[in-house]
Structure formats: structure tokens, C-alpha cells
Design a protein that fits this description.
The protein is α+β, with helices and mostly antiparallel strands. It is 36% helix and 18% strand. It is globular and about 55 Å long.
Length: 341
Amino acid sequence: MTAKNYQAWEVRESDYPAAGSIEEKLKFLLRYAILAPSGPNTQPWKFALGENAVFVFADLKRSLPFVDPSNRTLFMSVGCAIANLLVAGEHFGFRAVADYFPRGQDSDLVAKVAFEPGESLPLQEDLFLQIQKRHTTKDKYDRRMIEPPTLEDIMGGIDLSGLYLYWHSDKDSKSRMADLVARAHQIQLAKKEFRHNLGEWLRNNWTSEPDGMPLYTFGVPDAVSLGFPAAFKEFDLSPAVIYRDSGLIHGCGAMGILASDGDDKPTWVLCGVSLEKLLLKATRLGIRASFFSQPIGHPELRTELQGMIARGYPQLLFSLGYATAMRSTPRRPLEDMMTGL
């Protein structure tokens, strides 16, 4: 029997209420939206149903003031959930149109997504089946190249104006990026308030919590996982974290830098929408991702990273590679994420 905090992953396409009301159909689509990635699995979104529309809110109560003070990662995470909602809607024959920040950027209403009857996507364009297969890896990659045509195919997920994606797979570039990530870890993990803020979202491998990061995703053994969250809060474990991330960077098939012309909430959301579509494309090809947001949060390190690209503000540094599939992370029940207008 699947534990309650993993039951969200068992949603079945065959349960779609084809003969139901539009409200029932849209609520069913949200069961796929909540399977989106978020850092660090905070699931910082809320939803409301309106007339032929889903309203997507940022749940700012789930922000991380010391880890993500600008809420960049939070809004990117909400964008990932919107992407899943759009992909699921298209799969079930809807045409979806998203209106971002209809009440302005000071509102926590991120998007109104309107749905109307449309046509299902051709099979080769439909990413729906990848939603339940996608997961992040933080353990290790198989040391295999990703061929350039495969990277070009994955790059097709970045299809919005003002966004740019740059690939780096040579040894020197990986070394530079590993150094940036290492220096960011040294700065961040030296701060107790940062460790406590992030440590609140670390979970042991038997967790019954519906959110946060179980340590099996990092390759931490079951017995070690029991005491690790407390140890992480109290001690600077940056050498171990740097060692792990260096292995992910040097062992990956390619490093990606997602950049943008803008650097505000709407941009971060659109980065998330495009990122999730990229991840679904990668999943279809058997490729996993790992994220390194640490240098983005430091102006000097971000400027160094910007020197490695031709245009735009770096918004995310990530790796791609072939990796063994692992267990997904917990999810909150959809009912806990529903709100009123």
C-alpha cells in the first residue's frame, strides 16, 4: 500500500471525468500540476477554480527567507506547476491561455489560465506521459555523453521570447561551474540561519511528511538519514556537499544555463514554465536533471556566471545526464492546496 504522502503520484489518466462538469475536469488537471518540481520541494502553490479557468497563486507562506530571499526559486516553481497544468490540459483536448499577474506583480495571483475546447496534441508533441516519470537526481549520473542532436531536441522546450539556454559540456567549463557552486556553498553553509532555513525541509528516508526533500534523493543511506537533518542545521557540512555537487557536475552529460532578458517575477515564472517543458522533454529521452541555484543568489558569483553566456541574466544553473530512476518525492494532497478567489 502506498504511503499517503506519495499517493498523488498514482493519479491515472483513465480516471479523467470525460462526462463530468468543466469544474471536475479542471480539478483533475490539477492533480498533474502538483507533481511539478519545486525547490526544495516546498510546493509553494495554491489553486482556485473559476468559470472555465484555474487561478494559480504563489503560496508565500512557504517561502525561504534566508535561502531564497528574492523568491526567485519560488516563482520559478509556480511556473513549473503551470507548465504541467498546460501540458495536461492540451493532452485532454483543451486550448489553454495563461494571463500572468492579472492583478499586478504585487499580488500573489500568478496566473489565470483559461480553458476552452481544442484539439489534442500529436503524439510526438505530447509530453503528458512524462509528468509522472520526471524526477530530479541528486545522487550521481552514468558517465555518458549527451549527443548534440539530443541537446537540440531538449532545447526545444525553451520556446518563449526573452529566454535563452546555453550548453557547456567541456571539462574547463564544468570546472569553472563547479568552482562557482563550491564557493557559493562555502558562503551559504557558513551561516547558521541559512542552514536552519534549508534544514527545515530535509527529511529522513521514511518521512511521513507531504513535502520537503527525503535524503534518498541525495543517495544518503537510510540509517544516516535519521540524524542528518539535525546535523545539517548545526554544522557546516560544506565539504561533503561540495564533493557531492562536484561529482554531479563533472559526471553529467551537459551543464545548462537558463538566462533571460528580464529579472522580475513574470520572468521567473516564465523561466519555470519553460524549464518544466524542457525537463519533460529530457525525461522522454531518459535524461535527468539536477539544479545548482547557489551562485545565482550571490551578485558577484552571478556576474561570473554571466561571463560564460552571450546574453541575459542567469536564472538557473543545472546539469543533465543519464541516471538510474529513483523514487519520487512526497506531495501534499490537492485538497490542501485549494483556496477561494
